[in-house]
């Protein structure tokens, strides 16, 4: 599953070998007993789209491993009308008892059911939900569709089941659909039978692969598909009829991804066919249902005539992410949700490989470095959780799908591959998949395979990064002596706040790779102790302690002159990925109070000739944070002049108009600079944005798509009621997904309170797709002009909104509250959530409160440094 867009665990004092022995054996709270194990489901569904309900019938072939008198299943909001059990040639009725708090149902028998094979037969009914989970209604202006979203624990909302990842089984699914409609599922359609006297027909699908319940898929509607092939694998990209034409790019990306993965995994695509379905209203970017991947339509379909560079890359990467799961997640599945990071972290790391091979000019390794550095920022909070969680309840499981699972998981896997070498790492993956194909596995199984394949102590390196929260800080000290340089390394947990909390001692085994001007420190060292020493044979002019930016750690240089020397050499001597790490390490030291803000501002000036988009975007983001949290009204003009001088020369060189022969990276850089300059008040950038928007609204194809998005945002921030009316009309009747997305977020970017209140009103009017709630409220909460109203609206509507979309709390509103930077708002947030639950977003809430504290603290800590620095500027 792709998140498009975060439970600390104390450091254990016992040995890592004991810790490994415990993996895969989580607490049995809200867990089904293993006395009955499913092997096959024969499942029939009869959805009534107009009535918003469905009926179903199933026969589950099970294996009873020990005599029982009751059978436990997962079931939520289903009415079971018939339950019986057949074994040994006789059938007996079962008494049904519902346990809604635990999302279970108990089937009680009058006698003992002996060990051996048995059949469970149930008839049931339920409602098509409106919360983008279970079997729900996904709506367009023209009609409704019935679709599924089951990860993590929502399969039980459609059929009683053994709804845990380890209970893999095969599925024989059939479904009743209206005349003119079809259905898409994990298998292929093998029978299409008309129903006499009714405008309906029954579709039956081939037996599915052996899979977990959360990977079952069903989509009912008038889908139309574009067909292709990757070798012997047939591929379809399916959408609502009016959007079928936008499936071409997705088909091409899927073909390239499958062919790449066939080679890389060393296992041919394992499921015979692949369908990819664009769902009109879908919570996640994508969901890796076995052989039938569902995507949010805006993450799969693309108008190639108007699509931006950013959207082309994002679409390709999301497609590759879900296809990567077909091997790593579907063929081999995590045994329990505590190890879901391995599925998602691996797919997040893997997603860029096939796309980089397809489009090397996109330089996706730089995006990977930026993503790794950004999640280190989250992992620097005291409230950060360990990658490996301890989820018991559905709310705990929901909370696992965060940036720590995805991005930190990807970053530590990337560090591991860099340490052991790409080929050794790939052999370990292949060994892991071959040993556990069609079954379940744990992270310990993966580490064991990598250790055996590489001959390196992976099983000692990985547990500290996975089993404990936080990121290591490696401090370096040392000076040149008699032609060599002895270096002292010390490690401790890094905290973003200078007021570091008391916490248990933590240690990591950290692969550290040093880069120097004369290459004297190019070897990698495994730091295994709290303090350690190595010696460089020469005295380098500078040293950079994260070669290739693959290390998952922060570095602090004891010698400030080394930082100055690196900054001066960075443009020529460091790769873009290394410059990304340089900027982020420097900013982290500023935020934590280890370096003054003036040092970061000096670094920015040293990088004034920087031309890499990711580096520029990160610099601009941090300079904007300084502006929002430290710059007083009297300092605004001088600070704005510094920003315009920082980015203006390159912006003016590129201009705001596309030129024949522009590379995609040049287009992306121009778009980034338009946003930076426009939000910094540059009159030319504002005027250009307003012109671009008007031209786009007249003829979207006449504007280079990449620059349109930032132009919309800048124009809105400087716009009036007339522009608001234009953009409102676009949201009501968009010509493309890109146009809708740009206009919607622009409506949250105006500065006039009266207009922003109209944007909030769109939610009540039902104009906004549920899938867009998180991004919309994030934008409104981040806009100082709408922040108070958006927060008041959330408080008034919290109970209904938090249930609309399962990720609304964590990835949307609750996380966005972290942008508040006043004691009054912080205290109000605390008070509100002391009285209101945020299921699945409790950690996100604690992290937002910590971010508020950090922002307030940062202003107190660094304001004088910025004031002195600005006073010294000409």
Write a concise synopsis of the structure shown:
The protein is α+β, with helices and mostly antiparallel strands. Helices cover 43% and strands 21% of the residues.
Number of strands: 30
User: What is the arithmetic mean of pLDDT?
Assistant: 91
Question: Helical element count?
Answer: 28
Morphology call? globular
Q: Which structural class do you get from the secondary structure elements? A: alpha+beta
Weakly predicted, low-confidence segments? 4-28
Q: State the strand order across the main sheet.
A: 5-4-8-2-1-11-14-13
Terminal-residue CA separation = 51 Å
The whole-angstrom Rg is 28 Å
Report strand %. Answer: 15-25%
Question: Biggest sheet: strands, sense, closure?
Answer: 8 strands, mixed
Please estimate the helix content: 40-55%
